[in-house]
Amino acid sequence: MNDLMKEHNYKIITTQGNVTFEEYDNLLSEANNLAEHVKQVEVNEENVKEAKRLMAQMNNRVKELENTRKDVKKTILEPYNHFENQVKTIKSIIDDAVSHVKKQERELTEQERENKKQAIADIFDKRIKHYGFEKLMGFAEFLKPQYLNKSFSMNKVENELVEWLEKTKRDLDTIDKLDNRDELIVEYQNTQDLAVAFEIIDKRNQRRKQIAEQVKRPETKQVHHVFTISNEKDAQVTKLLLEQNNIEFEYKNY
Q1: Which of 133, 212, 202 is nearest to 173 (CA)?
Q2: Model pTM greater than 0.70?
Q3: Which pLDDT does position 5 carry in this prediction?
Q4: Judgement on whether residues 105 and 177 belong to the same structural domain of the protein
Q5: Exposed, middle or buried, 187 (CB in 10 Å: 0-12/13-18/19+)?
Q6: Rounded to the nearest 5°, which phi and psi values hold at 183?
Q7: What average pLDDT score do residues 46-63 get?
Q8: CA separation for the pair 133, 137 (Å, rounded)
Q9: Mean pLDDT lowest for which of 13-27, 100-114, 126-140?
């Protein structure tokens, strides 16, 4: 691919805008004088109309100046806005081209990963035939995302496969000798770790045992002990004694 975009010293000429406000000093002096005069005059019922008229005049002058300022700003910025649109147009074209290249690059990477996945699957199918447990532990259980990376060579993948097959065979042979074989196989398929599978089942069995013991345990019948004290003084003493010893009781006076 030719190097179409080379380094450039872009010939962009900027002419500084210049705004001349010839009446600034005079208008500033007028504004200061008028402001000082207004601040010194105390507004009352007699001069309130004159004060309002002066304020209206000042606001109109300020409004005229603000409108002029906005027009000047618009004029000054017109060349910049035009230049900005030119840059945005070029940027949009380049961004679109870059996105197109990135999309193709992603598609190429995904295709390479799919091709490698198929190559690994072919090797897996050839080797697992010699072990005979493909119905229990298949390609999906072996494959890891990192195996599809370019940095992970096929030789390394094959070494990983041999280790995985041998380890899985040893673990399944161990499981096959146990009474709870079916339950262990399910957990081993999920974890691919024999020790973890044993731990999960052990915890499950402990929980079952606890539940069974709770079911067998008879309900404790609540027994009420009733003391009948006819003497009021003795009853109060007994009540105080129970309270001091934090003994729960129900007191009824018949």
Answers
A1: 133
A2: no
A3: 52
A4: no
A5: buried
A6: -65, -40
A7: 80
A8: 6
A9: 13-27
Rounded to 10 deg, the angle between the 154-176 and 181-191 helix axes is 160
Mean predicted confidence (pLDDT) in 120-136: 92
Does 185 fall in a domain?
A: yes
Within a domain: 67: yes
Distance CA 149, CA 179 (A): 41
Q: Tell whether the model's pLDDT for residue 230 goes beyond 80.
A: no
What b/e readout covers 133-144, taking b as 16+ CB neighbours within 10 angstroms? beeebeeeebbe
**171 and 130 housed in the same domain:** yes
Count of domains forming the chain: 2
- 142 vs 161: CA distance, rounded Å: 7
Q: Residue 162 is part of which domain span?
A: 121-216
In 129-153, alpha helices (H): 139-142
Q: What are the pLDDT digits (tens) for 238-248?
A: 777 777 777 77
Per the CB < 8 A criterion, the answer to whether 55 and 48 are in contact is: no
At position 213, the amino acid (one-letter code) is: E
